[in-house]
Amino acid sequence: MRALFLFLLILLAGSNHANVPERINRKAVVTRHNIKSDRFSKRSPAQVGNGEIAFGVDLTGLQTFVPFNTLSQWGWHSDPVPEGVEIGNFRGQQVEQNGKMVTYPLRNEENEEQRMISDWLTGNPHRINLGRIAFSLLDEQGEEVQMDDLQHCQQEVDLWTGIISSYFEIDGIPVQVYTACHPERDLIAVSVESRLISLNRLAVEISFPGASAANSRKGNYIGIWNEPDNHSTTYSRGNRQVNFTRRLDQDCYYSTLSWDTPANFSEVEGTMHTFRLAPEGERMAFTCEFSPKEIRKKRVTATATLEASKKGWKRFWESGAAIDLSGSKDERWFELERRIVLSRYLMKTNESGSLPPQESGLVNNNGWYGRFHFEMIWWHLVHWPLWDNLELADKSLSIYRDFLETARMRAKGEGFNGAKWPKCTAYTNVEWPDIAHAFLIWQQPHPIYFAELEYRQNPTRKTLKKWSDVVFSTAEFLASFAYYHPEKGEYVLGPPIVPVSENTKYGDTFNPTFELGYWRYGLKTAKTWYQRLDSVVPPPIDTVYQRLSPYPMEDSLYVLYEGIPDMWSKYTFEHPAIIGIYGMLPGDGVDRKVLENTFDKILSSWNFRRIWGWDFPMLAMTAVRLGRPELAIDLLLHDNYIFDEHGLAYGEGSPYPYFPSNGGLLTAIAMMAAGWDGCSEDAAPGFPNDGNWKVTFENLHKLP
Fold this sequence. Notes:
Structural class: alpha+beta
Distance between the termini: 41 Å
Radius of gyration: 27 Å
Helix content: 25-40%
Low-confidence stretches: 1-22
Shape: globular
Oligomer: single chain
Number of helices: 21
CATH topology of the domain at 36-77 and 127-318: Beta-galactosidase, Chain A, domain 5
Strand order of the largest sheet: 1-10-11-12-13-21-18-17-16
């Protein structure tokens, strides 16, 4: 009998269901994927950060030879409004929709003022680089050291502690650097040990750049360094401390440089925004804090920050969910687990702050002035509650409550009820004039999805009250936007619509498949919320749900939108979102056979060199629901779904980096391990059950 119990315990140890404390050695899982580098990269930084700020570094542990960015959730700038122009005069354009004229945020060039307003709204506000911290290194002749002069470079990102260790030599003299970010303050700490200090060959320089819309739209390196008269840096000295005040037009932020070891502070001659800290002895320790407000908090040392980083990251890794694939026979387990672990680190570093993330997190601005996309909030943040870290999504998801009143104003201004969420914005909730921004709609049901995820974990009246206004206002818009088509006897969507794939004409796009599916999910879930609160479901919500058009279909295949010409010869590129109705979404109203036929058609005819990012996990999630877990693994390791050495993801032709890739991976893995509503009770139902995969996990949650 004792042998039998032992045998059962061994079986349970490999089970994917039981949540046995300490079953996974989380530290071992994380640290076997520590990032080790010995070559400089011009675009892929190592990072430290806390979700509110992130600091990208090259192989020196600072921004010495590669000017990576210091980005934050609060660091924004707007160019001055052109003289004589009033932004509030923006008119947009009117477009016919279902027999009425609707004013949309479209670029207006009817006169010079409207053109200038359109330009200004496009570029402002934009996310800024807060500053660059770099070594000043000299060789034996007193000349500046170049990148190629460094010898024996070795860098390791210790994921468990959040500390970057960087080692290099100059003329055979070692330099050891440790870099970290405080978990609760926007503060970078650096510790340096080297004999170069005593030889007066190592110092640190901090520089502050200007900003403009033209500079901040996109690029690996943000900031204007050659227009010193367009911004100002003033400072005051204290005891081993300098307090900077930065002004860029009407915007202002603050920085404090503090040092724990003897050092001399000075302005760099011939510059207006660069300052030098020259240490003494053979050790240097300093911190640099950034803030939108004057910094009045108690000073914290570099040593204390390094310790705080260790504790903060240990707390993160020991909370939430974890997964261990090391018992698998399939040799691809290591790469898949590496992607998972690095994605967890990157999402905590870049995407756990006070605003929804931009596509490139806090690495750079990769095309949209640092602003965030509301349709991408799903792929950036859904993984947090699924990985049992709901609290890390909650800060930025408060955007729905913060923006609710202006979202209602947007809906009313366009002639609809409820609340209409923007497409691409900043902290302002002001849309910039653009066709996709005016007509994209698949972001609208997102808050209902997030509310339901939270309720599944916290099924309380408090949760219902927290989200009810947002859920109900969103549902009111969904019902109001749908139009009753008398000839069809159904409620339809559009035109004008820009679908998920953003590759069709907005005036032709009618009843797009994914949007119909998401409208169904949103309205159905909202009805449940009314019932939970013992409220009557408003008749328009129920009526539209009951009479919404079916999914468009041709030749037993779902198509992008109703009546689309030449679907499979002209539109097999960009996001294949028609398949998301049964994968990302639970499939309300889906004919499984037709869906499976469509999935096979996509696999055989879609241009996989022109999809990227979340497309691969979306396809994997459909494969899982269809009972094809082997294919799901293949898709998550596809050769155009690329994760570089730091875990930064991209694909051919995609922006770099593209964080929806990381969020999508974590979402798909949660689904594959923990399952989804209505799945089998098999262990890890989304992984192959062929003996090649052993999946041990803790605290993951099911997908709806």
